[in-house]
Amino acid sequence: MIRDSAEAAARLLSWYDRHRRDLPWRAKPGETADPYRVWLSEIMLQQTTVPAAGPYFRRFTERWPTVRALADSPLDDLLVAWAGLGYYARARNLHKCAQVVANQHGGRFPETEAELLELPGIGAYTAAAISSIAFGRKATVVDGNVERVVSRIFAVETPMPAAKPALRRLTATLTPEDRAGDFAQAMMDLGATVCTPRKPKCMLCPWAEFCDGRAAGIAETLPRKAAKADKPTRRGVAYWLLNPEGAVLLRRRAEEGLLGGMTEVPSTAWGPEAPGDAAVATEQPLPAPWRRLPGVVRHTFSHFHLELGVVAAQAGDGWRAVEGLWVPIDRLGDQALPSVMVKVVRHALSNA
DNA sequence: GACACGTGGGG
DNA sequence: TCCCCAAGTGT
Hints:
Elements: H1 5-19, H2 35-44, H3 50-63, H4 67-72, H5 75-82, H6 89-104, H7 113-117, H8 124-135, H9 144-153, H10 164-174, H11 180-193, H12 212-215, E1 233-242, E2 247-252, E3 263-264, H13 277-282, E4 291-292, E5 297-300, E6 305-314, E7 325-328, H14 339-351
Parallel strand pairs: 1-6
Antiparallel strand pairs: 2-3, 2-7, 4-6, 5-6
Helix pairs in contact: 1-11, 2-3, 2-8, 8-11, 9-10, 9-11
This protein binds a DNA duplex through helix 2, helix 3, helix 6, helix 8 and helix 9.
C-alpha cells in the first residue's frame, strides 16, 4: 500500500529521469515544450502505438511546423497525410482545432484544462496531458496506461469502465504539484514498458514494494474488463473501373462516419451477404461488362470484419459523365486512401 | 453507459 | 488464425 504519495511520486520521477525514452515529440531535458508538437503528438497517439505514430509525426511537423501552417492548409491535404493512421475523425478535428486556435486564440494554445476541453478532438485525457506536459500545470492525466498502473497498485477489482471515477481519484492523490507533466509521462512510460498488459516486469518496477496487486498475486489480471462483443462480418463488391486513358474511378466518402472524407474505390453497400451479379449490376457506377476478379479483400475495422470482392471493367462511352474522380494509376499515392482501399487497389492491380 | 470509429503488431 | 491491444473522443 502506498502510504506517502509524495514519496511515491518522487520515486517514480527518479525512475523516469533514469529511464526517459527519447521520443520524436518529447522535449529534451532543459528544453521548453512546444504546445503545438505536444498537441499534435497527443492526437496522433490516441488509441495508436508509438511506432505507428512516429513517422506521421515527423512528416506532419516537417510539412506543417506551426499550428497556423496547419490551419492554412486544405483539409484534404491533411487527410492525404493522415491516410493509413486510422480514426480519421482525428484528422478532421485536427484541422478544425488548428483553425480555432489560429483564429480565436491568436495562434497560441490555451493553458487550462477547461479551455483546452472546448477544442475539437480534445477530451479529458488530452486536455490534461497538454496542460501538464506543455504548460507545467498540475492536471490529472488518465489514459489506459495510467488506469492499468493505478488499478494494480491499489488492487482495484471493480471492472472497467465502472472503475474509472475511482481510478481518477486515486491518480489525483498521487499527482504531485511539481513536475506534473513529467509525472504523467512517467506513469504512461511505466505502463508502456514495465506495467504492461501481459507479463508485467514487476522486478523492474519502482513501485513493486508498494503494489497491492502484486502482493495479492493478481496484478496481471488487472484492470478487470467485461468480455467484448464479437464482430459481425459485412460483405460487398468493389468496382475497379478504368477509362480509356488508363485512369481509375474513385470517390470521396461522406464527410462524417466511417472513413469520413476519405477516398474510396466505389462499391456496393456492405451488408451481411455477398452481393450477387444482380446486385452488382444494380449498383454499378456505369453499365459495363463486369468480370469478377479471383479472391477477396479481407479487412477488419474497429467494430466489424469486411470481405470485399472486386469486379473490373473498361469504361466505354459516357465515362466522363460518371460521378467521381478519375485518377491515373501512378498518381494514386496523392489520394487519401485508407488502408482498406490500398488493399483493394493492390488486389485489383495484381489480379486484373 | 454504450456504441461508432482504423490499423498493424504481438502472442 | 484469431483475439487483444495502443498516450480516446464524440454522440
